[in-house]
Amino acid sequence: MTEPAFDLITLGEGMAQLSAQTTGPLRHVPGYEAHAAGSELNVAIGAARLGLRVGWISRVGADGFGDLLLAAARAELVDTSQVVRGEDEPTGVFFVQRGYSDGQSSSIYYRAGSAGSLLSAADVDPDYVARAAIFHTSGISLAASPELNAAALAATAAAAAAGARRSFDVNFRAKLWSADDARPVLERALAGSEIAFCSLADARAVWEVPDAEAALELVASFGPAHVVVSCGAEGAIMAGPDGALVRSAAFPTQVVDPTGAGDAFCAAVLTGLSRDWPAETTLQRACLVGSMVCGVVGDNEGIPSLHDLELTATNSWVHR
Ligand code: KDG
């Protein structure tokens, strides 16, 4: 078997994020700043910045926001040869309201009929997917539209046929589908994955589990050998194929906007798995990367390079 050309290939919709420049309800926000976002694009950018060879499969509009997404991916040397340029549909957009109702951020989507949601199975080249060591997608791709759902499933099947490891993040978005609609689809996707990510919040929303251990056990029961449950400010737990459970605390941070932190966490775990970091190192670094993203506006700008991560990790241990 030939060496995979990519450590990681992700598939999913990129979107322009318009993040409120001031905190509070959107109706009183006078200005926004634009960032490249979208879960699987965030993972691609994060993993590339951490040193992996990454490709991104997607579809963007022939508009300025499409240019923004491509520029963000290419700046990190993410391969965009499989990003289709739609002729007529706009690139999807979402607004982020920050620091309102419990200090949380919330995303308001303008994505119906977007270019990214119209990526289809016919756009997926199985030979390209076969060049990945790990293929990654998430529940957002399964929920956003029938076309994107079919594209994600086609790519997952191509990855399986080629012997690539399949990674799946539950990424439940209640604005895209209900828990009842999502549950069987997510369970099928988890059954077809080797590596699975689920936040405790998502596990509670979809399966009503009481705690992180129950979430881990439940997700593992669907089939994936490697399961990671992230618990926000409570840190994360991870179980590998050897069954050993690893825990990490979160790193205290001044939260500016947590949007994208889960994707950054996921990118760091996938980097650790690809580079054979010890399990404890992988999980601690992933928690650190997630906390670094929380301190910065934008989904992926706060993800460090490997050099910055190592430096920050050393300082964090010293000051803990
Ligand atoms: O994880 C961050 C994503 O939620 C954000 O970038 C937007 O992809 C997005 C989505 O569908 O929610």
What does this entry show, briefly?
With 320 residues, the chain is α/β, with parallel strands linked by helices. Helices cover 39% and strands 23% of the residues.
Short key terms for the protein model shown above:
320 residues; 13 strands; globular; alpha/beta; 4-stranded mixed sheet; binds 2-keto-3-deoxygluconate
Please give a structural write-up:
A 9-stranded mixed sheet has the order 5-4-1-8-9-10-11-12-13, sandwiched between helices. The protein has a 4-stranded mixed sheet with strand order 3-2-6-7. It has helices spanning 39-49, 64-75, 126-129, 139-144, 146-162, 179-191, 200-207, 212-221, 261-274, 279-294, 306-319, and strands spanning 6-11, 15-20, 32-37, 54-61, 83-86, 93-100, 104-110, 132-138, 165-169, 195-199, 226-230, 236-239, 245-248. A hairpin with a 5-residue loop joins strand 12 (236-239) and strand 13 (245-248). With 320 residues, it is of the alpha/beta class. The chain starts with 5 loop residues before the first strand and ends with a helix. Bound molecules: 2-keto-3-deoxygluconate. 2-keto-3-deoxygluconate binds at residues 15, 37-39, 42, 94, 107, 140, 173, 259-260, 262-263, 299. 2-keto-3-deoxygluconate is lined by residues 15, 37-39, 42, 94, 107, 140, 173, 259-260, 262-263, 299.
Ordered list of secondary-structure elements with their pairings:
Blueprint: E1 6-11, E2 15-20, E3 32-37, H1 39-49, E4 54-61, H2 64-75, E5 83-86, E6 93-100, E7 104-110, H3 126-129, E8 132-138, H4 139-144, H5 146-162, E9 165-169, H6 179-191, E10 195-199, H7 200-207, H8 212-221, E11 226-230, E12 236-239, E13 245-248, H9 261-274, H10 279-294, H11 306-319
Parallel strand pairs: 1-4, 1-8, 2-6, 4-5, 8-9, 9-10, 10-11
Antiparallel strand pairs: 2-3, 6-7, 11-12, 12-13
Helix pairs in contact: 1-9, 9-10
Bound molecules: 2-keto-3-deoxygluconate.
